[in-house]
Amino acid sequence: MASLDWEEDQRTLEELGIQLSVSKLQIADLKERAQQQHNQTTSGGGDFKGDSGSNGGSWTPDKGVSNCKGCEKEFSITRRKHHCRHCGAIFCSSCSEHTAVIPGESGGKPVRVCDVCWQRLASSSVLPTQMSRTKADLDKLRKQWEEDQRTLEELGIQLSVSKLQIADLKERAQQQHNQTTSGGGDFKGDSGSNGGSWTPDKGVSNCKGCEKEFSITRRKHHCRHCGAIFCSSCSEHTAVIPGESGGKPVRVCDVCWQRLASSSVLPTVGTSQTLSLQVVSCEQRATRAEADLRIEREWRAAMQDNEVKHKEQISQLQLENRQMVDEAKQMSRTKADLDKLRKQWEEDQRTLEELGIQLSVSKLQIADLKERAQQQHNQTTSGGGDFKGDSGSNGGSWTPDKGVSNCKGCEKEFSITRRKHHCRHCGAIFCSSCSEHTAVIPGESGGKPVRVCDVCWQRLASSSVLPTVVAVKPSGVECNSLKLVFNWVPVGTRKKRGCGEYHVQLN
């Protein structure tokens, strides 16, 4: 009955081992699928033809390449190989962290390119803005990575449960086997070694064969023939004990194995070798799983670093975008102000042109009035009349401007600010200070006041021929000085309007 239970436990162990192998295969398949999806996301596929200007566009095979073409650092487990989808050369992740849409290639999707190709594509204005696309790819990879992590955690839990079940079944099988071998029956042991009694684990700290101390790595094992405790090196053989163990090979020590072999009762078995191969295979699979797990962690750390870099790039681009928007608004306001100033300048130019035309007309009128006054003055001084002026001052003749450089009154030299003025009575040339008076010459100037020098003005006043005159502005305000007639000018408007009209009134 115990043998049947032990066989059943062995079958259960085999089933659990198969289940464990299937679980590991599922984990490896999921990792391979995740890696393929990651490669498709980063490489985009398509009809890649490469760049004729770099590496000839040929795809460099992985075999034989041990250093990055960019930084020339050696590849390792943490520094993986990556192909540039534009030139085909092999780089590390740091030298090929950019992605770009190659015109006419990769189906319009961004693919991995090296730094040199990325700069060339950017300088040729064929590198599109891929912030939103890169963010979508990162979100997709993050969701896929989270799903894979959950799957790995579930499989890890299943694996742990399977290991616990296997350990429990092993313990039950060991207990049943101990009961079978030590609970009576036909087993009598070898009278020459330990009397066939089963040695308890407690109190035994050294191997009976090599006498080495037991530890975590050097475990205890009972010889199923003599019942003593040995290490695995001293009890690595198996043998079928006649009349015991149901015809199955069991663990025996080296001494018992030699005795059984010398007595020609040791059958040829390959179970130990088979189990050793299975153990080696399991250890190799566990080593590969640990390496894959380490690579997965490193890949996750690299993905997190790339995500941080992409977030920083997105923040920088958003900041530059806001600055450009602010500058565009400032330029719009400046352009509006410039248009306003241009319109105002054009209006001022038209106003200046109108004032210039008005000034020209006024000058022509003044010249005409001067000419008429000169003609009247000449007629008055040459035609006789009651008043003939001062016999000592130029004889009443009109002095020409040419050749006169000093005022006849104060003898100061004429200049741009000190202008020449003719006295309408004697005809001599004076400055404005020496000819600031006006008077109505009897029989001349049509009864209007004209400019006279100080001497003529005094003489006319002393001869009682100088009338009292009052200057009247257009508003009706009277002034006692004729100086306001020449100094007062209306200001304060840009509109076209006529100059103020001035006239004198005789009392």
UniProtKB/TrEMBL annotation:
Keywords: Coiled coil, Metal-binding, Zinc, Zinc-finger. GO terms for cellular component: cytoplasm. SMART domains: FYVE. The keyword Ribosomal protein does not apply. Residues 32-59, 171-198, 371-398 are annotated as: Disordered. Gene3D superfamilies: Zinc/RING finger domain, C3HC4 (zinc finger). Residues 62-122, 201-261, 401-461 form the FYVE-type domain. Pfam families: FYVE. One of its GO terms (molecular function) is zinc ion binding. It comes from the Eukaryota. InterPro entries: RUFY1-3, Znf_FYVE, Znf_FYVE-rel, Znf_FYVE_PHD, Znf_RING/FYVE/PHD. PANTHER family: RUN AND FYVE DOMAIN-CONTAINING PROTEIN 2-LIKE PROTEIN (PTHR45956), RUN DOMAIN-CONTAINING PROTEIN (PTHR45956:SF6). This is RUN and FYVE domain-containing protein 1. The gene is 6042412.
